[in-house]
Amino acid sequence: MKKVIIVGAGPAGLSAGYLLEKNNTDCILFESEHQVGGISKTIQYKGYFFDLGGHRFFTKFDEVNKLWEEILDKDFRNTPRLSRIFYKNRFFNYPLTPVNALFGVGIIDTFIILGSYIKSKVLPCKSEENFEQWVSNRFGRKLYSIFFKTYTEKVWGIPCSEIGSEWAAQRIKGLSLKTAIINAFVKPRNSNIKTLIDEFKYPVLGPGMMYNEMKNRIEAMGGRVHTDCRVTRVYHDNRSIKSVEYIDKNGIHHTGEGSDFVSSMPVTELIKALSPSADEAVLAAASKLKYRSLITIDIIVNKQNLFPDNWIYIHSPEVRLGRIQNFKNWSSRMVPDARKSSLGLEYFCNENDEIWNMPDAELFRIAAAEIERIKICRASDIEDFTIIRVPKAYPVYSTGYKENVDIIKSYLKGFDNLQLIGRYGLFKYNNMDHSIITGLQAAKNIIYGSCIHDTWEINTDEEYQEEKQEEADEASFARLKEGNSGI
Ligand SMILES: Cc1cc2nc3c(=O)[nH]c(=O)nc-3n(C[C@H](O)[C@H](O)[C@H](O)COP(=O)(O)OP(=O)(O)OC[C@H]3O[C@@H](n4cnc5c(N)ncnc54)[C@H](O)[C@@H]3O)c2cc1C
Questions:
Q1: Considering only 1-15, 92-106, 180-194, 368-382, which range has the smallest mean pLDDT?
Q2: Confidence at 399, pLDDT banded by 50, 70, 90
Q3: Using one digit for the tens of pLDDT, what is the confidence trace for 242-275?
Q4: Is there a cis peptide before residue 276, judged by omega within 30 degrees of 0?
Q5: 3-state DSSP call for residue 88?
């Protein structure tokens, strides 16, 4: 009899558990938080629903779409999309439109953009190791500095010259300024991509609704989802994983034994939890992998209509604020009182840096002043707030990260009953759908009793939101921003 231990009840772990239980395979999920959903959960505060950053549902995997539809059915709805960029006290349409962009940056900057684009074609940087070189070579330095540099550096907290080009290649692949300009004038051809730009799927009460329901269904089929249980040790005999040690909310230590192990906990923590300990080289590689964190300052505003966007990217360097979500524009049911609005103000940071450690009252004071400064609302219109700190919101693709991931990967592949899944399990900057696919693949390997899928091989680089070159045309700037936003 198989008994599968799954670490983490985010989208990846829950999807694995759901498929296993549907196929009569016993599983237990251990989740360190009180609520399931991982970084795709939805927080409730005084009847308002807040995502940890807005979560659009989109995928090219039919299997994932079917799963989402199966779980939420009519509560999973098409939502119109509007998002803009705020820069130099102006809003830019996003995707960019020529007239808006021209009036936005001004005629002089437009000529500089074109001049620097031509220069990048005639005299490109010879090396393309980092984000700055990669983007400047494709779009010119001026466009890079307006629409990539400030926001990307807010998201990652390091200069673009220290961000590996792999990340740019993954997220903004196959695009060029030429296609962006052409397609700003030419009507979009591919309805598939247009759909992605104009609307997306979203549960009426946010992504948490999807993952709470998945948990309910796993439990209804006999699976166990233990929340408030953090896995702290993973015991093995160098060939197989034998058991995990977990600590419950009362601080009591327990042991969970299983035949198969699926982990979506951050791979760096898994390496540290192994007993006996991993080789020095593997521990060293894990210690070099870094994450970026996020603080969301969620505010309730005594105003019915603030702006029509689902979210706004704040490129302006004069504020630290990175992005604003307007939740009633995601789903009206996120806001219990239609006369009010709720916003999620996103600040990117590092765990334990100055902003992370700032007292809540101080953080709120800064956020209220910044939101007033960019004229979204007056600080005095804010009625209430709650603050959520999200550690490890993004795996950082800093230069050289891949070699470290490869060291870890080849070591962990030595265990015959361990599969890694999800964004942090695989240290891949992916979205919900890729996390879910890895969870489903791990489950299938267990159900069929053979390793037909290698979860490490899920290719976020090729089949993600980025399209193949011939499909990319009309979505050029949209894709650009997807990459830029770090969402
Ligand atoms: C700001 C932001 C916006 C985003 N927007 C989108 C979007 O629009 N669309 C989209 O598709 N994706 C989006 N994403 C990405 C999406 O949130 C992730 O891809 C997805 O949540 C990853 O799922 P996962 O299960 O792999 O990991 P997680 O969601 O991180 O889940 C892992 C779970 O494991 C638990 N865990 C960790 N360690 C332990 C341990 N030791 N013991 C027990 N449990 C443990 C964690 O508590 C967590 O619940 C966004 C992410 C961010 C940060």
A1: 180-194
A2: confident
A3: 999 999 999 999 999 999 999 999 999 999 999 9
A4: yes
A5: coil
Structure tokens, 2 = 């198989």
- Average pLDDT of span 66-71: 97
Beta bridge mates, 342 = 300
CA–centroid distance, residue 245 to ligand 1 (Å): 22
d(CA 313, CA 316): 9
Ligand 1 near 196 CB (within 6 A): no
**How far is it, in rounded angstroms, from Cα 177 to Cα 136?**
11
SS3 percent helix, strand, coil of the chain, rounded to 5, is: 45, 25, 35
CA angle 466, 468, 471 (to 5 degrees): 95
Structure tokens that stand for 374 in this block? 């960019």
Identify whether the C-beta of residue 151 lies closer than 8 Å to the C-beta of residue 446: no
Spatial contact of 275 and 18, defined as CB atoms under 8 Å apart: no
Residue 458 near ligand 1, beta carbon < 6 Å: no
Going by the DSSP 8-state scheme, the letter that residue 464 receives in this structure is: S
Helical H segments across 106-176, by residue range: 107-122, 131-139, 141-144, 150-156, 165-171
Q: Which two tokens stand for residue 395?
A: 């795996």
Q: Is 422 in the pocket of ligand 1 (CB under 6 A)?
A: yes
Contacts of 270 (CB under 8 A, 6+ apart): 7, 234, 263, 412, 420, 425
Q: Is the CB of 12 under 6 A from ligand 1?
A: yes
Strand ranges, E, within 176-335: 199-203, 224-226, 230-236, 241-247, 253-257, 260-263, 274-275, 291-301, 311-314, 323-326
Question: CA–CA separation, 97 vs 180, rounded Å?
Answer: 10
Torsion of CA 63, 64, 66, 72, to 10 degrees: 160
- Its pTM stands at 0.89
Q: Which of 149, 157, 150, 162 is nearest to 355 (CA)?
A: 157
- Give residue 435's identity as a one-letter amino acid code: S
Q: For atom 35 of ligand 1, which residue has the closest CA?
A: 8
pLDDT tens digits for 357-398?
Answer: 999 999 999 999 999 999 999 999 999 999 999 999 999 888
Tell me the CA–centroid distance for residue 58 and ligand 1, in Å: 16
Cα-to-chain-centroid distance, residue 118: 34
Sign of CA dihedral 431, 282, 3, 215: negative
Q: In the chain, what are the domains? A: 3-37+63-70+206-287+398-457 (3.50.50.60), 98-185+464-485 (no CATH)
Best residue among 264, 291, 349, 438 to mutate for probing ligand 1's pocket (most ligand atoms within 8 Å of CB) is: 264
* DSSP state for residue 416 in the 8-state scheme: T
State if residue 439 touches ligand 1 by the CB under 6 angstroms criterion: no
